[in-house]
UniProtKB/TrEMBL annotation:
Residues 610-628, 642-660 have a biased composition (Gly residues). InterPro entries: Beta-barrel_TonB_sf (IPR036942), Plug_dom_sf (IPR037066). This is TonB-dependent receptor. The keyword Mitochondrion does not apply. It comes from Novosphingobium aerophilum. GO terms for cellular component: cell outer membrane. Residues 629-641 have a biased composition (Pro residues). Its main location: membrane. Residues 1-26 form the signal peptide. The keyword Signal applies.
Length: 823
């Protein structure tokens, strides 16, 4: 009887995990999350949140249906706060998986997840969109100080999902779902320095976080101090013409201090927050820096640049269900005041000053709902509208110009539609699978540049329960940045520039600032994607993505100085009678066309370590859900955005970090490879074509054809080890080809970081001897373990003076320790 019951239970759980989601927004099953926390013998594990379903029922079936006699009842519920979209998550982590990372903050966790959150869309992708409980937030400040122990689940979704929240589809989406009940006071201190010494960084942070259903409070104070590192401490060779002793008066790392205060308060509206929520956030940051850039030519005193920036920020998020629609309004504002004092180079005891005031206000209202029902499911719609304003007031005594004032307003609106075409669940061409059409259009009216339009179309195809395909086409217009257009002209003498054609580093007078002649950019992107849950490897998946970009009138900073760029912009370069470079105009430029294509593919693998402890709640086999959920089924479900409000039932407390519900450890490995097929730039109409994969360059070292990213680690019985690594292939930058010239070769670069940590609270002997160590964690970090720096050489194998390894990376191997304690 016991064997029969066990077999039925296992079969039921597998069936529930593979059942298609019952919503056009695709909320995935959550029974396995609850099972890990259920008491021994409790197969529901659901509390007030659970709905009883038979093993043969799909997720989302009517809970009022009576199970047939003799069937085992299992739990298959949606977690409130999950993102509901036709595109399934690429990666899903539960709280045990998150604890295995040993991250001290959400910022650290995002850094560790960089291979999975990176995007190849556009010309390299953007920062991921961050959601909290399935909703927009006013800014990352709202959640950056939330302790990772408070996260119940994390979802990483493809770029197309960003459209549903009013963002452009060039960023992946990360959704953090919080536990319903959690409280912690956290103190953290960290110290680190290069293994060769010279500089050090000390950080201290204290925070309070408390969540109870729809209400949250988060208060954080932090301070960071970094000591300077001078060129003389690394033996940096000085350029020709430098004054003796200049190395001791030039910093590679500035002396800096940062103070930050951040506060976030959220309250639910109505009974148990069912009428919505209101979030207020405020932050203040002060940054002081001092750097040195050589010797005064008259007094031989060190020349200093001293800066102070004070930034005040605030945000409001209001969320409210309106019938079957979910309304979210966000406002984010910031004010930054900066002052920089710069010593004059050839005048005794006199300084120049640069002042700036930067203000911005961004507002956006989104409404998400289902306005229409089709045989294959509900049509989903996201309607948005907003206004953004930014302004810059700046002055600089080094210029003859009066105070510069720049302003821009942006009135925007847009719509996104998700139209289900076929559905297995609703028996609409079930043999085809689940096919959804996605359409979007946006309009922006800029006060200083005119009208911009965007539109996109895409298909999401759930071929099988384990295989999903996506295809999308995006046309996007973009305006140059405010400072690209209107920044004041600044002339800076004695800037070291490497002249490839003469194989020498020259001290050059450089002009920077804005360029009013910049034009409107048009980007055209194609993306093809595949997400396959690997058979026989629970919690693992293969992700394959192809990107192609074509852009016209691309705004770019002035490219790295090469013979090809000099030929394309001859009016920007000044040489003396002997051909020596003496001046360079580096205002932004408009490139006629840029085209690129790349393939990015990767594996996400995960599993468990050891056997579940006797009497444990029976977590998922193989550990987490690194592979995400199955491709969703079509059909309707609960109102979109329902996860932002009320309680999530059966919440968790703030127990010891990293203690898993079933006694197992965790391991995971993610490996991604990017290969560039094409990357070309047409500088001007009829101008030269730069092949960035074959020796031409717009920035430092050209574009590598191949690159690798990896992250992984293991956690067991309180001991954890994490690693991240990157590798880029070698590149070269071509010279003129003349006898006196020489190519530059940028060598391959591999960097690996290690983090070892121990949850002291899980070591019973230590806690008994020192009770203070309960809920404490100690970590040892080594960045750039192999102490690698990119090696740059000319055709003779000599390292140019401007590319000395310690100028490229003065830190090298960095060793740090961290002690974190929760109360």
């Amino acid at each position: 009887m016991r064997r029969t019951l066990t077999h039925c239970l296992t079969t039921g759980l597998v069936a529930a995990a593979l059942a298609p989601a019952g919503s056009a927004f695709a909320a995935e099953p959550a029974a396995v999350d609850r099972a890990a926390d259920a008491p021994a013998g409790d197969i529901t594990g659901g509390g007030a949140e659970a709905e009883a379903l038979t093993a043969s029922d799909p997720v989302g079936a009517d809970p009022r249906e009576t199970p047939r006699g003799g069937e085992i009842v299992v739990v298959a519920t949606r977690i409130k706060g999950q993102v509901e979209a036709p595109q399934p998550p690429l990666v899903t982590l539960n709280e045990e998986d998150i604890a295995a990372y040993g991250a001290a903050s959400i910022t650290d966790l995002l850094a560790a997840l960089a291979p999975q959150t990176g995007s190849g869309r556009g010309r390299g992708g953007g920062r991921p969109v961050v959601l909290l409980n399935g909703q927009r937030i006013s800014g990352f400040r709202e959640m950056r100080n939330i302790p990772p122990e408070a996260i119940r689940r994390l979802e990483i979704l493809p770029e197309e999902v960003a459209l549903r929240f009013g963002y452009p589809p060039d960023q992946r989406v990360i959704n953090f779902i919080l536990k319903d009940k959690f409280s912690a006071r956290t103190v953290e201190t960290e110290y680190g320095q290069p293994d060769r010494g010279g500089s050090s960084t000390t950080e201290v942070e204290g925070s309070l976080f408390r969540t109870m259903g729809p209400s949250r409070l988060n208060l954080t104070l932090s301070a960071t101090d970094t000591t300077p590192l001078f060129e003389s401490e690394r033996g940096v060779q000085q350029a020709a013409g430098s004054l003796p002793g200049s190395a001791g008066a030039r910093t590679l790392i500035a002396d800096s201090r940062d103070l930050t205060a951040n506060a976030t308060w959220t309250t639910g509206l109505g009974e148990q927050g069912l009428a919505g929520s209101l979030t207020l956030n405020g932050a203040f940051t002060r940054n002081d820096t001092t750097s040195f850039f050589g010797l005064n030519g008259l007094t031989l005193d060190p020349l200093a640049r001293r800066g102070r920036t004070e930034t005040t920020e605030g945000g409001i998020t209001f969320a409210k269900p309106l019938g079957t629609w979910q309304l979210t309004a966000t406002v984010d504002a910031s004010h930054a005041a900066g002052l920089t004092l710069i010593d004059r180079t050839n005048v005794a005891r006199q300084t120049d000053s640069a002042r700036s005031l930067t203000d911005s206000v961004t507002s956006l209202v989104t409404a998400v709902g289902r306005p229409l029902s089709l045989p294959a499911g509900d049509v989903t719609a996201t309607i948005k509208g907003g206004f953004a304003w930014s302004g810059i007031v700046s002055s600089d005594t080094r210029t003859l110009l009066a105070e510069t004032r720049l302003r821009r307003g942006n009135l925007s609106t847009g719509i996104n539609l998700g139209v289900p075409l076929t559905s297995r669940r609703n028996a609409v061409l079930p043999g085809v699978g689940d096919l959804t059409l996605n359409l979007s259009a946006d309009l922006d009216r800029l006060s200083d540049f005119g009208t911009l339009t965007d539109w996109s179309a895409g298909l999401t195809w759930g071929v099988t329960e384990r295989l999903g395909l996506q295809a999308s086409y995006i046309v996007n217009q973009a305006a140059p940045g405010l400072t690209d257009l209107g920044a004041p002209l600044v002339v800076t003498p004695n800037v070291a520039i490497y002249d490839i054609s003469r194989q020498e580093t020259a001290l050059v007078t450089v002009t920077t600032g804005g360029n009013r002649q910049l034009q409107r950019e048009t980007q055209r992107d194609i993306k093809l994607g595949l997400n396959w849950q690997l058979p026989g490897l629970n919690g693992s998946n293969l992700v394959v993505e192809y990107f192609r970009n074509r852009s016209d009138n691309v705004t770019a900073g002035f490219p790295v100085f090469t013979p090809a760029i000099e030929a394309a912009f001859p009016g920007r370069v000044t040489r003396d009678a002997g051909g020596r470079l003496i001046a360079l105009n580096r205002l932004p430029v408009t490139l006629a066309e840029q085209s690129s294509s790349r393939l990015r593919y990767g594996l996400n693998l995960s599993g468990g370590i050891g056997k579940p402890a006797p009497g444990a709640g029976g977590g998922r086999p193989g550990g987490g859900m690194m592979g995400g959920g199955p491709p969703p089924g079509g059909g309707s479900g609960p109102p979109p955005g329902a996860g932002g409000g009320g309680p999530r039932g059966g919440g968790f407390g703030g127990g010891p970090p990293g203690r898993f519900g079933n006694g197992q450890g965790r391991w995971n490995l993610s490996l991604y490879h990017t290969v560039q097929f094409e990357n070309q730039v047409i500088v001007g109409a009829g101008g030269p074509v730069l092949d960035l994969l074959s020796g031409d360059a717009l920035s430092g070292g050209g574009v590598a054809r191949h690159s690798l990213e990896a992250e992984g680690g293991a956690f067991y019985r309180g001991f954890g080890l994490r690693f991240t690594g990157t590798w880029t292939a070698p590149t070269r930058v071509r010279s003129t080809g003349l006898p006196a010239s020489s190519d530059l070769r940028f060598g391959a670069l591999a960097k690996f970081n290690l983090r070892a940590f121990i949850d002291l609270g899980q070591q019973k002997g230590l806690v008994k001897a020192a009770p203070f160590l309960k809920n404490a964690r100690f970590a040892l970090m080594v960045d750039n373990v192999l102490d690698q720096r990119q090696r740059v050489t000319d055709g003779t194998g000599v390292v140019p003076i401007g590319y000395q390894p310690d100028l490229i990376d003065p830190v090298g191997r960095f060793i740090g320790v961290e002690l974190r304690k929760q109360f």
